[in-house]
Amino acid sequence: MIIKEWNAIKKGQLAPVYLLYGEEEYLLHETKQLLIQHVVSEEEMDFNFSLHDLADEDTLEAAIEDAESFPFMGEKRLVFVEGAMFFTAEKKKDSKQSTEVLEAYLASPAPYTVLVIHVPAEKLDERKKITKLTKKTASVIEAKKLTVNDIKGWIKSKVADHRLQIEDEAVEKLTVLAGTNLFMLAGEIEKLALYADGADMIRHEDVVLLTPKSVENNVFDLIEFTLNGRTGQAIELYHDLIRQKEEPLKLLALLSGQFRLIYQVKNMSGKGFSQQQIASRLKVHPFRVKLAGQHAAKLSEDHLKTIMLSLAECDLALKSSSGRKDMILEMFLTKLPALSR
């Protein structure tokens, strides 16, 4: 994780250049917000903060010119460069920009400026001269997708920012109910912290009371109920989702995606792949692989093929029917227990 870099920023231990990349948008967002908070004051934002988007007609030359300008009515300037795709192997518009001006700047960065370069990509092209040079000079922050354990640690850290603690059972429940999207989890933690005003601990019952389930988790419950013979509960939950204005076609897409993942996990597990390897190959979060594996253990490949064929038929019926579309998916849920035996 990038807690070490965050702590350094909070202490005012600032690097002259930051290179940000990775696929976890929340961590990138938080890093940028921390830098804004600790480099320039709110009163200085108009004078000492600038943003250059290379995907939107801005140039690297203009950004470096800004970085070399003295701060006005303050000690530091903060310059953001967005969309720096020339650090990757992708052929994008800005990849044609000359990096010589940045190379020259990196040789002697302005001591009064913090230059932040964001590469909106999962990986950097390590073969490129500019990548090698920047990694030697800059503080490189990679925002990787977090593992399940990392997310639990992140939740505890986020709660600690509110001078609170959280029960382990509450952490577990929060990830089950809210999923693993850090933006959503951060919002739920803010809500729980407000509710805990005057207390020192966020408890399991607080999470159950205040945290709504994501649609994806409700779909997981639909599958769980039907596979365990609790069709009545599945139908009741489905009716609740329809009352909440969830579209049958959207729910079907989520169901189809989940069963497709269950099939892939079962197939790959049978070939000896670990959960982490499966998550990496399928580019899904390990937590989703873990949940899919629990369902995969209850179903044979033949059952899964039959279910996916039935889902395809349901999709065709939903897209071609002019009648009550909610009934089509309800019929599928009713017969799902028989398809899984």
TrEMBL record:
The GO molecular function terms of this record are: DNA binding; DNA-directed DNA polymerase activity
**GO CC terms on record?**
DNA polymerase III complex
Q: What Gene3D superfamilies does the database record attribute to this sequence?
A: 1.10.8.60, 1.20.272.10, P-loop containing nucleotide triphosphate hydrolases
Among SUPFAM superfamilies, the record links this protein to: P-loop containing nucleoside triphosphate hydrolases (SSF52540), post-AAA+ oligomerization domain-like (SSF48019)
The UniProt record lists the EC number as 2.7.7.7
* Entry keyword Zinc-finger: no
Question: Which parts of the sequence belong to the DNA polymerase III delta subunit-like C-terminal domain?
Answer: 216-336
**Domain of life the protein comes from:** Bacteria
**Segments forming domain DNA polymerase III delta N-terminal:** 18-144
| Keywords from the UniProt entry | DNA replication, DNA-directed DNA polymerase, Nucleotidyltransferase, Transferase
PANTHER family of this UniProt entry? DNA POLYMERASE III SUBUNIT DELTA
Q: Which NCBIfam families match?
A: holA
Q: What is this protein called?
A: DNA polymerase III subunit delta
Q: What is the lineage of its organism?
A: Bacteria, Bacillati, Bacillota, Bacilli, Bacillales
